[in-house]
Amino acid sequence: MTVIQAEYHQHHRDVTGGWLRPAVFGVMDGLVSNGALIAGVAGGGGDTRTIVLTGLAGLVAGACSMATGEYTSVASQSELTRAEIARERRELAIRPAEEQAELAAVYRARGLDPELADQVAEQLSRDPAHALQVHVREELGVDPDDLPSPLVAAGSSFAAFALGAFVPVLPFLIGLGSLTVALVLTAVALFAAGAAVAKLTAVSLWFGGLRQLGLAAFAAAVTYGIGHLIGASLS
Questions:
Q1: Taking the domains of the chain in order of start, what are their residue ranges?
Q2: pTM to 2 decimals?
Q3: pLDDT along the chain (235 residues), means of 10
Q4: Which of 182, 191, 194 minimizes the C-alpha distance to 43?
């Protein structure tokens, strides 16, 4: 008799967002926005002192803006989710039979035989606390015990943006007051960040790095050109 071995599956990486999206977005945004900002000021004829002041102001303002936006977004989403969880809890208390039938319908839609779907829904509905978790996961697509923290999201976004935004300013702070040096350092950081993300997402390192570098170069070129035109018109 042939014995069929169960196929072994490794744990998959989190593909729903998690920490990767805000961290990558924050670092990339800091690198691109502050690098382009410094390029625009330099293109307009700004001296080293002006560039440093602008770069640091852009770092602080951008990091605060990112943190505020992320906090508001996550807090609002969590508040909405908690309101829906409370609504589901009330419905389970008032109409348990209807909620059990609704859960059975979900499993039938996923391919279970009607009788089996009814049995699964009945068994899962025996414990009210467990039933609430199942309904929330099935209907809302979230884990009621693992909602994101607005403070953690805000702090992570602030730190990530500040880290990225600091790179274009660094050469001017250590006495290398050259836009070329700042742009080269920023380009290296952008390529490295893009390559790191590509490694996590199984995309070619060169593709990930060059894609991010190309997008950032376009932003810096446009900002530099606009700064140069405005600087020339004001002189």
A1: 21-234
A2: 0.75
A3: 46 49 79 90 87 93 92 90 88 86 86 87 85 83 81 89 93 85 88 79 78 82 82 68
A4: 182
